[in-house]
Design goal:
about 290 residues; alpha+beta; about 25% helix
Length: about 290
């Protein structure tokens, strides 16, 4: 492997990584890289061959004990030559001693198992233009026609005290990620909405532009009715009304809701961990934040 070296990603590299992920069909957000860099500025690694980038990986540290692997890509022309494995080892070494998570595409899941990862659930991407007529009322079963969530106000998330938003997000993620969350909801071009009832947060959703369907994530909610109310409002900000949501199949009511709203499964990745599955509120998770950083 003469001439191969691994170093941290530059700003130009971050844009390149985003383009590579798009070529893989992962449809990352147009501006995701800016929030990703805030999460852990040293967490993005690039492998260069003769000075040219040929592989990448993210190994992002959260808090004191959690990490997440993403963007593991070797360019087609160098696959099977060991460069990707060298980069993988560098990323895992950076997260040594932590519980590590990732979202593994189907063809790579056996390789991740060999590295000590175990499947927790599948995140299934659902895409389409949600149909308002299928939205459930508060307390109704997903997919049943009705109105919207009673007594819940949908507001700009920027108007909610950030400490409350961060505490709410912490229910659904294994570690604090305040800096990332602040960037994620505040970047230009995206819309973040919160569902509030009597001063309490009962839902949070963010939509961001992509080269394909606009991605929604996270989508957290106290009930299917709240989730559908958020999703319908967020879809108003998609150029063609078409959205994509990565839904944990371990939450069957979420899967039923998205199907009832007219969204179809198009892509699947397994959420995997190196140890005990973290204690997160799956019953309120209607869409994960990101397949790339958790």
């Amino acid at each position: 492997m003469t001439g191969f070296e691994i170093n941290g990603a530059s700003a130009a590299d971050m844009a390149l990584i985003r383009d590579w992920a798009d070529e893989e069909g992962w449809n990352p957000g147009d501006s995701d890289r800016f929030a990703f860099a805030v999460a852990d500025p040293a967490g993005f690694l690039v492998g260069r061959l003769g000075g040219e980038p040929v592989a990448c990986i993210s190994a992002v540290r959260y808090g004191e004990g959690f990490g997440f692997i993403g963007f593991y890509i070797a360019r087609p022309e160098v696959r099977g030559q060991g460069y990707g494995m060298r980069l993988w080892k560098a990323g895992m070494q950076r997260l040594d001693g932590r519980l590590v998570g990732l979202d593994g595409v189907v063809e790579q899941q056996d390789n991740y198992r060999k590295s000590g990862f175990r499947s927790a659930w599948n995140n299934v991407r659902h895409e389409g233009a949600p149909r308002a007529a299928a939205a459930p009322a508060d307390g109704a079963e997903p997919g049943k026609a009705s109105t919207t969530a009673t007594g819940v106000e949908i507001v700009d998330a920027a108007t909610v005290p950030f400490g409350q938003l961060a505490a709410y997000d912490r229910r659904f993620f294994p570690a604090p990620r305040d800096a990332f969350l602040a960037a994620w909801i505040g970047l230009p071009g995206r819309t973040a909405l919160a569902a509030v009832r009597d001063g309490r947060i009962e839902g949070l959703g963010v939509i961001r532009p992509c080269s394909g369907a606009s991605r929604v994530g996270p989508l957290y909610a106290a009930s299917p009715a709240v989730a559908s109310a958020l999703l319908l409002r967020l879809a108003e900000h998609a150029p063609d009304g078409v959205v994509a949501v990565d839904v944990p199949d371990a939450h069957p009511r979420a899967t039923s809701l998205l199907a009832g709203l007219g969204l179809d499964p198009t892509f699947e990745a397994a959420r995997m961990y190196t140890g005990q599955e973290p204690d997160v509120d799956l019953t309120g998770m209607y869409g994960v934040t990101s397949l790339e950083l958790g």
